[in-house]
Amino acid sequence: MASQVTPIVVDNASSDQTVVRIGTHPNVHTITNPDNRGFAAAVNQGFRASDSEFVLLLNPDVELLTGVDALIDASRKYGMAAGKLVDAEGRDQAGFTIRRFPTAAALIFEILGINRLFPWNPVNRRYRYLDRDLNLPGEVEQPAGAFLMCRRDVWTTLGGLDEGFRPVWFEDVDFCLRAVNAGFRIEYVPKVFARHGGAHSVSALTSGCRARYWCVSLLRYAAKHFHFLSYRGICAAMLLGSFPRMVGGMIRERNLKPVIDFSKIIQFAGLCLVSSRRRGVSRTTL
């Protein structure tokens, strides 16, 4: 039997007529924010507005291609569940659909661009589950927050997503890690799948904004979940890795704006590196 679904749309001050179009669907509950509160805050709003036992997080660029009853069954048993994401051509989105929790080495490799230059290195293969058949169901560590079902008591136990990850990035990784640490399990159910366009929201941001938001969220995650030496190593990698990324941005964009953007990142990473407290835990933005 098909599940009863109550769609809830949280609009973070969009400018693409989303609210107007949704208004033609009377059964959709719409929450309209006057400004962009970020992904985590929007998800928490959606949970609070719903009284359902199971809530499916679905990004605006994700289109369901199957029913989700199998996700409900898995969430009822384990706490959380996720399906498989495919691209516009129907190909599995390997490396994104599911990942392992990032180690300090994985984050350092990300920051320094090693995983992009040498994607088959063993650190990246492990981090992005490139050693796993995406057609096989089973326990996973960190599915993409773009397509993730959660039982309500899991969200309540954890106090929701951490809204300090603003506006986006690493809030889903943090939530999944806290869920696993609290004794819940995340089940991967590949027979449930959806088409994912990719970067629908963040593509509207400038490259400088994307870089700043990603760096601050990454350092916040590192400050929360890594011990002292690993955290400092990640901060140092962010500091050093920003210089070649700044030069690359100048060459690509043919202007000096990347200097301004990455100077802010370098300053923040430097403060995180030398500070006696973990600055990344605060809601600092650049």
Tell me briefly what this model is.
The chain has 286 residues and is of the alpha+beta class. The protein has helices at residues 18-22, 39-49, 69-78, 104-111, 114-117, 122-127, 152-158, 171-181, 207-225, 228-253, 257-274, and strands spanning 8-12, 29-33, 54-58, 62-64, 79-86, 98-99, 138-140, 142-143, 147-151, 185-196.
What does this structure look like?
The model has no long low-confidence stretch (mean pLDDT 92). With 286 residues, this protein is α+β, with helices and mostly antiparallel strands. The protein folds into 2 domains: 8-97 and 134-196, Spore Coat Polysaccharide Biosynthesis Protein SpsA, Chain A (Alpha-Beta Complex); 205-281, no CATH class. The longest helix is centred in the last third of the chain and has 26 residues, at 228-253. The strands form 3 sheets. Strands 3, 4, 5, 7, 9 and 10 form a 6-stranded mixed sheet that branches. Strands 1-2 form a two-stranded parallel sheet. Strands 6-8 form a two-stranded antiparallel sheet. The protein has helices at residues 18-22, 39-49, 69-78, 104-111, 114-117, 122-127, 152-158, 171-181, 207-225, 228-253, 257-274; strands spanning 8-12, 29-33, 54-58, 62-64, 79-86, 98-99, 138-140, 142-143, 147-151, 185-196. Strand 1 (8-12), helix 1 and strand 2 form a beta-alpha-beta unit. Helix 9 packs parallel to helix 11. The radius of gyration is 19 Å and the shape is globular. Helix content is 44%, strand content 17%.
